[in-house]
Write a structure and sequence with these properties.
alpha/beta, 6-stranded parallel β-sheet, 26 helices, globular
Length: 613
């Protein structure tokens, strides 16, 4: 929101208390809400709305190649700027094409506000099959914090202000609005100063009532304090709610005070600084020592993270000898078999950590930390082509990049490799890894890069993709070219694409090897040899190639260095054989089924430490 002084100055230049059209109400209200960029895809039902927004000197309209790409881009815009990502698309296919970003935003707690142009209200009520007419509120209501069909110009300002509030308050998430074109183009209402605009009555409009001021339930936290004080083998599982609450500093302070190590889910991993207590990734493809620590723990503190099946895996064997506390303010429910073991603490992550810090004294767990370190040495991670490339890029980034770059990914093996092997060193209060966690949406890597650049134009973005993911999101390379051409990003900010090309959907390929007798149904990719070279050329990306199909080469290192050093958009193709993502605990299985790299076999004695102590 703007400061009061700026609002007064701005409102003096606006047609306050004058009757203006719905489209003009949209424009001036968004200006008063300090919206700077909107992702748009035009069409018949939003032409007038975009015409009025296009006359604004304060709002920049970003046109993309496809509604889905724009939606993902403005998810990333929120991840970086912490301001809601605003989107406007036309009716019918414009709305349906936007469904995946809305669901992805709901899964990963991204605040986006999508306005879908619509046919006249009468057509919706009468069930007419109008051209590009399709009701949107009804299907979207399952994936949004609020979905609302605007019924008159009189309520436009209240709806927009309420949407802004709801999308960012509590756990962030998506809001979807329908705006029938006659209301935008022909209906009129008086423009009010933003401070005089009332929020819509939440309770009477079926908006989930999770936005009340957070109340610290001290009794639950005091019980947790007692458990911390007596615990010998505690561990924290921290997720994206830590970032949403701005509690990265508090998590580290709490961990140092109590000497409790913490793991970070995929959504949080790029936001926490390097520290001996920061163990990194747990779960299906997490580090062996992290999963052994959780299994053998006597106390698990789940904070800001969902009870996700990729971490819980077999519910009956998840931390079988531990107390489990779950700090989560928004009460999403517990949908698996550990429900009867979880002690729920409905408290904001930052406030709960501050309370714990204030009421705990210094504790040491030296033997426990030594045990975890011994597991790390006993079960080393694999050395392979993706690790080599990732570590080389990291080395040269430290030399040639002035600022720590953002990282984005598609979904699949490359996503896990990056989470496992990149040496994260985030700037203060920033999340450097932008990736689709909850929904696992392929084709998000380059759109996320675009959104990051729109929010932070002075910082480069490195996009790590598999060949399947880049085939999906290649449309956004055009947008990267256009942003650079139009000077919407900094002179020294670039998109650097890395594509691990193994001619397969490699995560599925690996599962087929393990569980489907190597039947490679629908997972092989048959791409022309110069497919990615041509893609780079068409979008004015400089093309680089490293080929590991015939073994390693010293020349590959110099190519990678030149790729990072290049001052412009660039694409690095890494030709390689498929590489399994190890370690791996198969879905819904327990840690004793963990498949380890390097031919290692899990020592059964390492599963008895928690039971014997």
């Amino acid at each position: 929101m703007k400061t009061q002084e700026k609002l007064i100055q701005q409102e003096e230049q606006l047609p306050i208390n004058q009757e203006i059209t719905g489209s003009e109400l949209y424009r001036y209200t968004l200006e008063m809400l300090n919206v700077e960029k909107i992702g748009v895809y035009t069409g018949g039902r939003v032409i007038d709305l975009l015409d009025k927004l296009g006359q604004s000197k304060e709002i920049k309209l970003i046109t993309g190649p496809h509604e889905q790409d724009l939606g993902h881009a403005f998810q990333a815009y929120f991840k970086v700027s912490r301001k809601p990502g605003f989107l406007i698309v036309t009716s019918g296919p414009g709305g349906t094409n936007s469904s995946t970003p809305v669901k992805d935003a709901q899964s990963d707690s991204d605040a986006i506000i999508l306005t879908i142009g619509q046919v006249p209200l009468e057509s919706i009520k009468d069930g007419e099959e109008s051209f590009q007419g399709a009701p949107m509120i009804e299907p979207f209501k399952y994936w949004t914090k609020w979905s609302y069909r605007i019924k008159s110009a009189d309520e436009i300002q209240s709806v927009l202000k309420t949407a802004y509030f709801i999308s960012t308050e509590g756990r962030p998430g998506p809001v979807v609005l329908e705006l029938p074109s006659p209301i935008a183009q022909f209906q009129k209402a008086k423009l009010k100063p933003i401070d005089e605009v009332q929020l819509i009555d939440i309770e009477n409009n079926n908006i989930p009532n999770v936005y009340n001021e957070i109340r610290i339930r001290k009794s639950n936290l005091n019980e947790l304090i007692k458990s911390i004080e007596k615990s010998k083998r505690p561990i924290t599982v921290a997720g994206g709610g830590i970032y949403n609450a701005g509690a990265m500093k508090e998590l580290l302070q709490f961990s140092i005070l109590t000497d409790i190590p913490f793991t970070t889910t995929l959504i949080l991993i790029g936001a926490m600084p390097k520290h001996k207590l920061n163990l990194g990734l747990p779960g299906m493809h997490g580090f062996p020592e992290n999963n052994l620590a959780i299994y053998n723990s006597d106390l698990v503190i789940y904070i800001g993270a969902r009870l996700d099946d990729r971490i819980i895996l077999d519910p009956e064997k998840f931390a079988p000898n531990a107390e489990i506390f779950w700090i989560e303010p928004n009460n999403p429910g517990i949908g698996n078999k550990i429900a009867n073991r979880v002690k729920k603490v409905e408290v904001d992550a930052k406030e709960s950590l501050r309370y714990l810090i204030a009421n705990l004294k210094q504790i040491k767990h030296e033997e426990w930390l030594e045990q975890i370190l011994s597991w790390r040495k006993k079960y080393p991670m694999p050395k392979h082509v993706p690790r080599t490339v990732i570590e080389q890029i990291r080395k040269f980034v430290d030399i040639y990049e002035e600022n720590e770059p953002y990282l984005t990914t598609g979904v699949g093996a490359h996503q896990m490799f990056l989470a496992e092997f990149w040496n994260f060193n985030p700037d203060s209060n920033k999340k450097m890894l932008l990736t689709s966690g909850g929904l696992g949406t392929m084709g998000t890597g380059t759109p996320f890069a675009i959104g990051a650049l729109l929010a932070d134009p002075e910082r480069s973005v490195y996009v790590f993709n598999g060949d399947g993911s880049l085939v999906m999101d290649q449309r956004s390379l055009l947008l990267a070219y256009q942003l650079k051409k139009c000077n919407l990003i900094g002179k020294n900010s670039f998109v650097k694409e890395i594509v691990f090309r193994d001619n397969s959907l490699s995560m599925v390929d690996h599962w087929q090897d393990q569980f489907w007798n190597s039947n490679k149904t629908a997972s092989d990719l048959d791409l022309p040899l110069k497919y990615f070279e041509n893609m780079a050329s068409q979008n004015e990306f400089k093309y680089f190639l490293v080929d590991y199909l015939n073994g390693n080469s010293d020349n590959n290192i110099s190519v990678i260095e030149n790729f990072v050093k290049h001052r412009g958009n660039a694409l690095l193709e890494v030709r390689m054989f498929p590489e399994p993502v190890l370690p791996m605990i198969p879905s819904m299985k327990s840690i004793d089924k963990m498949r380890l790299p390097n031919g290692n076999i899990l020592d059964k004695e390492d599963l008895l430490i928690g039971k014997n102590n």
